[in-house]
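Marked as duplicate of an earlier ticket. Keeping the data here for the record.
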Amino acid sequence: MKQSPLFARTYDFVAWVIPVTVKFPRHQRFVMAAALQREALEFQELIIEAAHQPDPAERLTAADAELDKVRTHLRMCLEMGLIQPGQYQHAAELLTEMGKLLGGWIQKSRSVLRKRQAFARHLRRDRWIRARRLLEQQ
């Protein structure tokens, strides 16, 4: 099975962020490090769950919010001196790519939903027309 680029980039980010945050000073390890790790893992879980849903829109929206939290906390880590500018640049590039891939998936799922809704409207109209014809024949 070929893996989606979003899953690969997310895995790369999580595999990078956990060792980096483990090196945070003790007084930030249970605050910023824990928050960043939790949010990165939550994002990964949400996209995995979305892949197994017939309508992934709800999980993808939650994943988008989680990605924003990761971005915000990562920027705070830079401003607090917990990560180096080069580390921030690497993470920001990964997060930007992940965001683009997620945005594409969200747009695709919305397009599929619109097509399903249009088809359902067509079926309802078709059933109504058939029912009307049956009544006219009686």
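See parent ticket for discussion. The mean pLDDT is 89.
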